[in-house]
Amino acid sequence: RSMATLARKNLTIGLIPADGIGQEVIPAARTAIEAVGSDIPSLKFVDLVAGFETFTRTGTALPPETVESLKEECDCALFGSVSSPSRKVVGYSSPIVALRKILDLYANIRPVVSAKQVSPVVGVPPDVDLVVVRENTECLYIKQEELRVTDHGKEARATRLITERASRRIGQMAFDIALNRPRQAMIHKSNVLSVTDGLFRETVRAVPDIEPKYQKVTVMEQLVDSAVYRLFREPKVFDVMVAPNLYGDILSDAAAALVGSLGVVPSVNAGDNFVMGEPVHGSAPDIVGQGIANPVASIRSAALMLHHLGYIKGANRIDTAVDSVVREAAYLTPDLGGTARTEDVVNEIVKRI
Ligand code: GGG
């Protein structure tokens, strides 16, 4: 299901730094891609805007020009991070959630891999290597919420959508990834949510009946709460974890704790015709503008995106350089216990590319 067969001669990449440290780490990812430019003929970048800051300036968080450019001009994109407010802001809607929908990027693929020398959570062996495959278009993220005032006070409700179509295609994506790895775990809570999670569970479980090539994958199931527990206690039992949208988001942040920092965990939002790299971390308002944001997650997201598109050599060159910088630990940003600045890490990675 990767787009490797679509690798083209010309590659146009949309850059959407969006909010907060996205403005610092997406340029870092661009620098890393430029460093492997000889592996990617006719490389072009298009600067695009979106985010809460864009909303406060222009009244829209996702300008139509950005969407049009992504659809008409770009082969792929890199998205930074967004500072969506925790309160309701009239007229605002998360641009990343919208982009995933508009571009039908139905899978969020998040590899979480230890850099061995980085101190893990106490007591957990530093050799985590798993992939969270998060459904990206539905669940509670359809954002159908309502607030009513009743005789007993306010009452808020949200609709949670799980469809057979979305569950099947995320299941297929996860099984595809699991073909090269020993196990796949389905994460759900169907003992409580027997209708919604029940549908997710039965649909994903049935995927190998439709496509027999997946029958060689060992399938396990785990309720989401015990999955988090086991993730911390014995992360090595997990390999590919496929989950509905919200569980997948939470699981991947939790897994990031096992590998030192959210600052090193990449992702791609993948559909059948477009792919968008995106660091798992958010906009980090506490460190914005200080020049100490960890660029590794974004640079790895760029490599993951290139890999997905079939630019394997360029992707591997970036990954190898990042791995050696992180492993040697001489240039680490403060989230990993170091004192390096973003530009120091980028320079070191580029030197090794
Ligand atoms: N790069 C991940 C990121 O920006 N996370 C923040 C986030 O997703 N916020 C919620 C939203 O805007 O939907």
- The proportion of residues forming helix, as a percent range, comes to 25-40%
According to CATH, the fold-level topology of the largest domain is: Isopropylmalate Dehydrogenase
Rg result: 20 Å
CATH level 4 superfamily of the largest domain: Isopropylmalate Dehydrogenase
What is the strand tally?
A: 12
Shape: globular
Strand-residue proportion: 15-25%
Report the uncertain regions: 117-124
Rounded mean pLDDT score = 93
Alpha-beta content class: alpha/beta
Give the strand order of the largest sheet, numbering strands 1, 2, ... along the chain.
2-1-3-12-11-4-5-10-8-9
Give the termini distance in whole angstroms: 28 Å
Secondary-structure element order, N to C: EHEHHEHEEEEHEHEHEHEEHHH
The set of bound ligands, ions and cofactors reads: glycylglycylglycine
| Quaternary assembly | single chain
Task: Please identify, by name, the CATH architecture of the largest domain.
Answer: 3-Layer(aba) Sandwich
What is the makeup of the main sheet? 10 strands, mixed
- Give the helix tally: 11
Describe it for me?
The protein is an alpha/beta fold. The chain folds into 2 domains: 194 residues, Isopropylmalate Dehydrogenase (3-Layer(aba) Sandwich); 140 residues, Isopropylmalate Dehydrogenase (3-Layer(aba) Sandwich), CATH 3.40.718.10. 38% of the residues lie in helices and 22% in strands. It is built from 11 helices and 12 strands. It has a 10-stranded mixed β-sheet with strand order 2-1-3-12-11-4-5-10-8-9, sandwiched between helices. The protein has a two-stranded antiparallel sheet with strand order 6-7. Strand 8, helix 6 and strand 9 form a beta-alpha-beta unit. Helix 1 packs parallel to helix 11, helix 7 packs parallel to helix 8 and helix 10 crosses helix 11. 48% of the residues are buried. About 2% of the residues have low confidence. Bound molecules: glycylglycylglycine (GGG). InterPro entries: IsoCit/isopropylmalate_DH_CS (IPR019818), IsoPropMal-DH-like_dom (IPR024084). One of its GO terms (biological process) is tricarboxylic acid cycle. Pfam families: Iso_dh. GO terms for molecular function: homoisocitrate dehydrogenase activity; isocitrate dehydrogenase (NAD+) activity; magnesium ion binding; NAD binding.
